[in-house]
Amino acid sequence: MASIFSKIVAGEIPCHKVAEDEEFFAFLDINPVSAGHTLVIPKTEIDYIFDIDDSVLGRMMAFAKRVAQAQEKVIPCKRVGLAVMGLEVPHAHIHLIPIQKESDMYFGGEKMQVSQEELADLAMRLRAAFK
Ligand code: 5GP
To answer: Hey, which CATH number is domain 4-130, 3.30.428.10, 3.30.160.620, 3.40.630.30, 3.30.470.20?
Structure first.
């Protein structure tokens, strides 16, 4: 069965898209830990990130770098933090999180409450900044 993220790539489940190329897709996390929390995934479904072929993984990281550069332009932050867990969704993904301080990357706490309108506006600005 297709993963929830494959369904997002196929347009069967809505998302706030940030960027896309032939191989990779980036979209806002539905439950952001900090503003601009974005997920980068390979379009080809694979569960565990460290099962990804080296050359694909390299291109995925280069794609994530371009997404992070867009986040830096749009969201005031000191850094874009990167995390990989994959405990919830069995489709490899990189969390890219604009941070001011370490606790902005805390996954165990309350998630942000962000309206669909705010997410749509943020995704639009990130898409415009993506190079
Ligand atoms: P992980 O698998 O790395 O533990 O976490 C999965 C992440 O995917 C979580 O941050 C969760 O909020 C996000 N997520 C789960 N389902 C959806 C969805 O349907 N849409 C979006 N945009 N994000 C999702």
So the answer is: 3.30.428.10
